[in-house]
Design a protein that fits this description.
The chain is of the alpha/beta class and 485 residues long. It is built from 13 helices and 15 strands. The strands form four sheets. Strands 5-4-3-2-1-13-10-7-6 form a nine-stranded parallel β-sheet. The termini are close together. It folds into two domains: 329 residues, Glycosidases (TIM Barrel, Alpha-Beta Barrel), CATH 3.20.20; 71 residues, no CATH class. The structure holds 2-acetamido-2-deoxy-beta-D-glucopyranose (3 copies).
Length: 485
């Protein structure tokens, strides 16, 4: 009899845990963390759960992020940065240690559901000029051994996210082939993937095609049909995504692996920093993409076979990303840096629109602006310094703050820097040209941000809160059972 008292609440707890399960869907997100306005990883994991996002792709194995994912059930692809491929390639022992410290320790009950390890991130990008090329396969071989030793080789698969520039030179999809200097290594890698049942992971960006080429037909980047379809023999392509995907299928067929499953590692549309990077375009692209993938239509070369997984890029804006590709680079999030939805989007996961992050810990509502009573002549160097560290990308052509005037520009730069410095009063001085204000200086679509504290209080708070309720429920059930006997 004593046993039943314990068993029933246990069943109840198990039922509670099952609430965490997600719809089985191809749609996931990339969670990058190159931001100085980081919300707590626990808040981000709650955001994922609230939105029923059951798959996430990371670019590293940040312990703070992985700890927050523990017990969530969310499927995780972790990443190995390109710059450590060399050491993993050269030493089996290093690979063993890496796997035990960054993978195995999380593969426990209530741990992290790691399913994939991305070996490098676009390691064959042409602009890297081959510097990582020779490390990829040896690193994969070592890691596979390490996983096997840890009894994880059957559960966790190695993949290699590739940029479409590995194959995308063909004018017609059916003529797709890998870059000549990559043919051999691609053949070996795909053979490796194939023998382990891993998908080929590719990043596809119609936005970049549009951004980089003025004669790229605008409507071909989206999913609403195109007045410039690409006719390829009997196949007609109405959107760049399908065209790009089938170029890859053709390239894979050419090396003998036309049937290998394909996952999309990154795909998305930015919302700021270029004229074509705006909210309505991002919404149209991402919604069109999701609907297209979930329709299971596939492409002309793979009819009825959509990609196995599609990771949107990205979850949150990252304002410390390198802007070499363009000012849009810091604005790929479907949520802003603080987890607020930028536009309506139905992820097809059964919960309608996007839900915002809760319990975000903001700094106080204070901004730094140009002092209206000062002559601002000498402000140039201050702006340069502020914008070299903080984010000013929205000020430029095509950005949401491009038309706020000279004084607006100065205030924007001052505030970005002030928030980056966590509202340290000294950081708003600028030789007396700056001034702290309690009135939100945002103008129209141009948002003057308030930073967030990256305190982990909220997680402790939540852990405590949940713990409290579980204990209360336990006691309640226990008393109830006692009472009913
Ligand atoms: C691997 O895990 C260790 C231990 O948590 C951590 O210190 C290290 O930064 C991780 N390595 C990488 C490359 O993320
Ligand atoms: C947004 O981007 C789209 C697609 O690139 C473009 O056609 C449109 O004019 C842009 N909208 C605005 C308001 O700039
Ligand atoms: C504000 O700064 C941006 C970026 O430097 C520039 O394009 C714009 O012309 C500036 N506006 C004024 C009024 O100076």
């Amino acid at each position: 009899m004593a046993k039943t008292h314990l068993v029933l609440p246990l069943i109840f707890l198990l039922v509670l845990q099952r609430c965490d399960l997600f719809v089985d869907s191809a749609i996931g997100v990339n969670w990058g963390t190159l931001s100085s306005h980081k919300i707590s990883p626990f808040v981000v994991v709650d955001l994922l759960k609230e939105n029923k996002i059951g798959k996430v792709k990371l670019f590293d194995t940040d312990p703070a992020v992985l700890r927050a994912l523990m017990g969530s059930g969310i499927e995780v692809m972790v990443g190995i940065p390109n710059d450590i491929l060399g050491t993993l390639a050269s030493s089996a022992a290093t690979s063993d240690v890496w796997v035990s410290q960054n993978i195995t320790r999380y593969m426990v009950k209530g741990g992290v559901n790691i399913r994939y390890i991305a070996v490098g991130n676009e390691p064959f990008l042409s602009s890297y000029q081959g510097q990582f090329q020779s490390f990829v396969l040896p690193a994969m071989a070592n890691l596979q051994q390490s996983l096997a030793k840890a009894n994880l080789a059957g559960y966790i698969k190695l993949v290699v996210p590739c940029n479409a520039d590995a194959y995308q030179s063909a004018s017609l999809p059916s003529q797709g082939m890998f870059r000549t200097e990559l043919t051999q290594i691609m053949t070996q890698i795909v053979s490796f993937l194939n023998s382990n049942g891993s998908p080929f992971v590719v990043n596809i960006y119609p936005f970049l095609s549009l951004y980089q080429s003025s004669d790229f037909p605008q409507d071909y980047a989206f999913f609403e049909g195109s007045s410039h379809p690409v006719v390829d023999g009997q196949n007609v392509y109405y959107n760049a995504f399908d065209g790009n995907f089938d170029t890859l299928v053709a390239a894979l067929s050419r090396i003998g692996y036309g049937q290998i499953p394909i996952a999309i590692g990154e795909v998305g549309w930015p919302t700021d920093g270029a004229p074509s990077a705006n909210l309505s375009a991002a919404r149209a692209f991402n919604q069109g993409l999701i609907n297209h993938v979930l329709s299971n239509k596939g492409t002309p070369l793979r009819p009825g076979v959509p990609p196995v997984d599609v990771y949107l890029f990205g979850l949150l804006d990252e304002e410390q990303k390198n802007v070499l590709p363009g000012n849009f680079e810091r604005h790929w999030g479907i949520f802003s840096f603080d987890g607020q939805a930028k536009y309506p989007l139905n992820l097809g996961l059964g919960n309608g629109g996007l839900k915002n992050a809760k319990n975000v810990q903001y700094l106080p509502p204070r901004w730094c602006v140009a002092n209206p009573f000062q002559n601002l002549d000498g402000v140039g160097n201050h702006i340069k310094l502020a914008c070299s560290m903080a984010d000013c990308t929205t000020l430029y052509y095509g950005g949401s703050c491009n038309a706020i005037g000279e004084k607006g520009n100065i205030s924007y730069a001052f505030n970005s820097y002030y928030q980056l410095q966590k509202q340290d009063a000294k950081s708003c001085d600028f030789d007396g040209l700056g001034m702290i204000t309690y009135l939100d200086p945002s103008i129209g679509d141009c948002r003057f941000l308030v930073g967030v504290t990256d305190s982990s209080c909220s997680c402790v708070g939540c852990g405590f809160f949940c713990g409290f309720w579980i204990v209360t429920l336990w006691v309640f059930m226990y008393l109830k059972i006692l009472g009913s006997l």
